[in-house]
Amino acid sequence: MTTPPTEPMTRLRDALRAMMDAPLRLRGRRGALGSADLDRLSRHIILPTVAVTDEEIARAAFQDRGTKLARQEMWDDLARLIAETDAARAGTPGGESASLLLAFGARSDVVAMTEDALHDGAIPDLDGIDAMEALVDEFAGDYPVAAVVALAHIDMAWAWRAIPGASGLDGAAIRAAHHAARAEALLAPHVDAAGDAPSVAAARCALLRAQPGHGAQHVADRYQHLIDIDPASPRHMRGLGAAVLAAMPGDYRALELEARRTAARTGDIWGAGAYAWVYLDALALDPGALCLLDPAFFIDGLRDILARRRDQHTANLLAAFCAITMRPDTARRAPVIPARDALHACLPWLLRDHLQELHPLIWTQALHRPGAGPLPPRRALLSEGRRTALRAIAAQFADDIAQGQSIAFSPAGMYMLPSL
Q1: N or C: which end of the chain has fewer CB atoms below 10 A?
Q2: In which domain of life is the source organism classified (predicted)?
């Protein structure tokens, strides 16, 4: 009897599944391994690398579209497109808002000129923003145009505060305050008229960064409105955590409260996922926030996120967070140890059950504190990210590799192969 052509593939698939289900040995040798050891072990990891991801392509497409329409002065088309993507709650595979990416592209030239001047120690020319201001009058009552111009002012206000040396220039504080005040005035007429437009709500949240001094409750209220009208976007929840932390540095009670409140409000969409989303960027900024974190609730959140978002952008993001942001820290305070270790210990199942391909830039981003200074060229970032990820995986499965196994990843999951 002739063997059906599909039978060998069936046997191979069953064998791979059996290998995937086999218990993985993690005996903690990674503490004694140096970089050279990890690099040697990482040669036994088979992990496809995607240098340009679907997420990057989608972000670039929306940003480039916004830039092109603004440069060609096609503001009617841009306003209509922002309104349409707002209404549809359109976004990238990773959950970035399409309307905000369009708005970013539309203002990027004007903001870049301001930032370049400040980096050079010069007072920026206002011709660009003045030209955008004229558009507000031309498109009176059109909220997308007002939102784009307001966001440009917000970026410029932040540049005056954040770019090294800018605060020492003549009238820096007054100029920053002027841009922030102008942004607030531009948004005010649309708070009620376009109150369900995520781009307007997001701009009002961004304005908080340009006007420091608001209390945590005020910050939380603005973000909760944004999350209520666009709950599917994790970007807003991550922004909430970072903003509440900035409003009350060193006091983590408000952060814990808002993480739980957000989880309760979005449970039908994210399960416990919002609790993890709110904490994600906050922990990257200040690991001290672990002191009030509920590890079990956070881990439930990770599982709920991945049950709803099965894309590789999310899998890489959460694996890099647990591997790099939550890696062991010998200088940490004793009360923080259990929570940090519990989150870091999620890495094996994240790798085994969810990782299929490597997105190296996500791993590089995990190495750098949010808002850090200028980064190296893209090629260097890709190389750094791949090396970082492979070392983290090698550290987790060092015993298995040392005993002659190779670790392989595919759409079928992670499995082990005997090394050649």
Answers
A1: N
A2: Bacteria
